[in-house]
Amino acid sequence: REPLPHLRVNEKGGIWVPQRARPRRNRKNEGLRSMVRENIVLPANFIYPLFIHTEDYNQPIGAMPGCERHTLDSMLKEVGEAHALGVNSVVLFPKIPDSLKSNTADECYNPDGLIPRAISSIKAKYPNVSVWTDVALDPYSDQGHDGVVSSDNLGDGGKGRILNDETVEQLCRQALCQARAGADVVSPSDMMDGRIGAIRDTLDSHGFTDVSIVSYCAKYASAFYGPFREALDSAPREDSNAPANKKTYQMDPANSREALIEAALDVAEGADMLMVKPGMPFLDIIFRLKQQTSVPIAAYHVSGEYAMMKAAAQNGWLDERTSVLEALLCFKRAGADAILTYYAKQAAQWIQDS
Ligand code: PBG
């Protein structure tokens, strides 16, 4: 065949597209690819979320294959296995029986409650594992809200309001209780205004200046939390006095500039790290916060994202290992330093195997 007339022919008689810069040269073998690779994901970047309850059996979670509500013994085993694979941080989420729930969620600062007991058992057995806690009322709220609900009808849609400052007081009690039990990091996920500063002052004035605060600073009112709410039985109740959604405190997924305000406030109030949540649909938010602040950024690869990948993998529609490791790497590329993911232990195993 004659070469196409507008292409050239080189000295060896081969086709020559006269193109001097050829980016493919840096991809030609693994030696070069690995030399110029900009990001790497390590087990040390992961925070492993664990669900716990007070029953004496493990309860699988329907929409999260591979995750379950653990007994304290099983939780300890899981922490040990993850730690052996290089995962040094865990975050705990409790399933609380209805009988202990109330509007003011006072069980959240019971020093003999499930979370304080879990924290001290992990610190006793694995002192090098850092224990993160969720600071939020929803697992303890009989309305399924992250805040105390007013009994009036002065809020959104003629329903009750989520009372900001009353909630912050409860969050301070909760964070202090977790710090006393030995938590290394408390992470408020409630989105009330002013809670980072109030929690910092509470911890400091009680002698816990070393306990870190990771703020869920850009937390969106997302549909991707569905499986988590099943795991904790914590969805906003239809019979709540407040609306059965979290839109008056969690952010609108349509917005990004609001995240910059939240970040600036939280850093000024003493947050040690900022969290963006959910993860994959919000990589642009991670990127924008990374430009604006110098504190480390964590990304939450949430329950709905886990469920999607598991479902596709179980159907044979996605290769689980490569697609999950790619998703986690993309968090790093977007600017996340740490990644909270239900895949932490499995991904750490995959990274070790490679
Ligand atoms: C609530 C909380 C939620 C998650 C973590 N903390 C759910 C919510 O805001 O309703 C969701 C995490 C996930 O979906 O994996 N304080």
TrEMBL record:
The protein's matches in SMART domains, at most eight in alphabetical order, are given as: ALAD
- Report the domain of life of the source organism: Eukaryota
Pathway membership: Porphyrin-containing compound metabolism; protoporphyrin-IX biosynthesis; coproporphyrinogen-III from 5-aminolevulinate: step 1/4
Q: Name one GO biological process term.
A: protoporphyrinogen IX biosynthetic process
| Enzyme Commission no | 4.2.1.24
Entry keyword Lyase: yes
Q: Which keywords fit this entry according to its UniProt record?
A: Heme biosynthesis, Lyase, Porphyrin biosynthesis
Chain coiled-coil ranges: none
Gene3D superfamilies in the cross-refs: Aldolase class I
Cellular component GO terms, alphabetically? cytosol
> Which EC class does it fall in?
lyase
Tagged with keyword Lyase: yes
Catalytic activity from the UniProt record? 2 5-aminolevulinate = porphobilinogen + 2 H2O + H(+)
Molecular function, one GO term: porphobilinogen synthase activity
One matching Pfam family, short form?
A: ALAD
Q: What does this protein do?
A: Catalyzes an early step in the biosynthesis of tetrapyrroles. Binds two molecules of 5-aminolevulinate per subunit, each at a distinct site, and catalyzes their condensation to form porphobilinogen.
Similarity comment: family membership: Belongs to the ALAD family.
Q: Which PANTHER family match?
A: DELTA-AMINOLEVULINIC ACID DEHYDRATASE
**What is the protein named?**
Delta-aminolevulinic acid dehydratase
What is the organism field in this record? Gracilariopsis chorda
